[in-house]
Amino acid sequence: MLPKISVVIPVYNVESYLHRCVDSILNQTFQDFEIILINDDSKDNSGQICDEYAQKDKRIKVIHKKNARVSAARNDGIKTAKGKYLSFIDSDDWIEPEMYQEMINKAEQLNLDFIMCDYKKKSIYYEDKRTQPIRAGYYSKDDIKNELFPCLIMFENIEYPPTISNCVCLINLKFLLKNNLFYEEDIYYDEDSIFGSKIMYHATNFYYLKNHHYYNYFNNPKSTTNTYSEKRWNSFLEINERLKIYFGETSEFDFSRQIKINMLYLTLSALGQIKYSENDGKDRRVMIEKIMDNPKVEGIFEEFKLPQVSWKMKVIILLIKFKMVRIYSLLIHNNQRTRTLHFTDEFLENQQ
């Protein structure tokens, strides 16, 4: 008999956290699931831990593969899954015991394409409950077009859309396959953003379990989220190009402003990451100048009205628009904790 839910977990060098993740699924009040552990060529004991779980529980499958990163691993999970619904979990995160029972009850009752809950962002120092600035409850296709298309790619205040974390979603597998929805395997960072926007775009209905914080997102101290690299920046540029291709020609809605705001977000993110670079001041200036001089960054400001954001963010945006490399690099080089720079810290902290 086929399971109701397929839980896809990409695994890479997470031996310290993997037990917590898998055990949180095994301890669900809802038990009709399969777990697909995709060991992405881990160098620690993660692969062995996966095999040990598979030996103990027949619902657990393990795929060992050469390292191809999380997007490819999730696609393998989509292709392997047998469940009616699909769930993605990051292997250093965990979920609350009632998550699947509550979500599948609503999904089955309303015949949903997908359903989303909220999450808690955690570290060893803090816990922060996160929710999305959209209403709770059921959305028809018309509701999605009217209420969610305006923030499908980005909110006006330069924040990611409601679906930025795919891990808080339970998705109908037939819906994914019918619309040929897979991750872009050559996108190495922020892969959730494009995938989530596509899901919402194609959905005929959707439900938001607002203020149900069932997912625990762990702020892993070994994460490279706040680290700048040219590869990451090139990935950011490619993300925006893919958005232009996918959403730029639609006649249903004009997403052009959201695509520009997305490029602005990615630019702010890259510049913020340079602050944490170990490079010296001269190298940082070179990196900042390269970003600000990029034609795709320049293109943001063609017939572009500044977003509805705080004056602090507007200052940063204007530094980018007028390519004030020296001012921006001096702020970073001196590591001055001015109110304006404090925005950069908050901006990076709030990223998923």
**Can you tell me the number of structural domains?**
2
β-strand percent reads 15-25%
How large, in whole angstroms, is the Cα Rg? 21 Å
Question: Mind telling me which CATH architecture of the largest domain this is?
Answer: Alpha-Beta Complex
What overall geometry do the principal axes of the alpha carbons give? globular
The structural class is alpha/beta
At the fold tier of CATH, the topology name of the largest domain is Spore Coat Polysaccharide Biosynthesis Protein SpsA, Chain A
Tell me the CATH superfamily of the largest domain: Spore Coat Polysaccharide Biosynthesis Protein SpsA, Chain A
Number of helices: 14
CATH class of the largest domain: Alpha Beta
Counting DSSP E segments of at least 2 residues, the number of strands comes to: 10
The largest sheet, given as strand count, sense and whether it forms a barrel, is: 10 strands, mixed
The low-confidence parts are: 336-343
Helical coverage, percent range = 40-55%
Mean pLDDT: 91
Question: What would you say this structure looks like, in words?
Answer:
It contains 14 helices and ten strands. It has 352 residues and is α/β, with parallel strands linked by helices. The chain folds into two domains: 214 residues, Alpha-Beta Complex (Spore Coat Polysaccharide Biosynthesis Protein SpsA, Chain A); 120 residues, no CATH class. Strands 1, 2, 3, 4, 5, 6, 7, 8, 9 and 10 form a ten-stranded mixed sheet that branches. Strand 2, helix 2 and strand 3 form a beta-alpha-beta unit. Helix 8 runs antiparallel to helix 9 and helix 9 runs antiparallel to helix 10. The two termini are 36 Å apart. The relative contact order is 0.11. About 2% of the residues have low confidence.
